[in-house]
Amino acid sequence: MISFGFMPIILFAANDLPNLPDSGTHGHYSVLTCKVNTPPPFQAVDFVYGPYENGSIWWQLEAKASEDDESPLFTFEGFNVV
User: Fold this and answer.
1) Per the domain annotation, does 1 fall within a domain?
2) For 57-80, what is each residue's pLDDT tens digit?
3) Residue 60 placed within a domain
4) I need a labelling partner for 47 at 20 to 30 A (CA). Which of 20, 28, 54, 69 fits?
5) Do the beta carbons of residue 81 and residue 56 sit within 8 Å?
């Protein structure tokens, strides 16, 4: 099972929109595992905020097989209604 430890923090922060980064802010994260000698299921995660609409926010998460890949393994889009 894959879990994203940072997602609950980001989703919780959406309740306080004035403190979120500007629309279009891009975050890039390297993926690690907690098991010794076990490679992660993918190497990189990109997260993009925005746009904001009527006090709510769109966001997108992309998982990439390697740091250099242009196309993601999967894309997950979400919308938080506040």
Assistant:
1) no
2) 888 999 999 988 889 999 999 988
3) yes
4) 54
5) yes
Q: Give the total number of structural domains in the chain.
A: 1
Q: What three-state secondary structure class fits 18?
A: helix
Range of the domain at 62: 7-17+26-80
Residue 2 lies in a domain: no
In a domain, 62, yes or no: yes
Identify which of 57, 64, 62 has the alpha carbon closest to the alpha carbon of residue 76: 62
Q: Which two tokens stand for residue 4?
A: 């994203």
Spatial distance between the Cα atoms of 23 and 5, rounded to a whole number of angstroms: 22
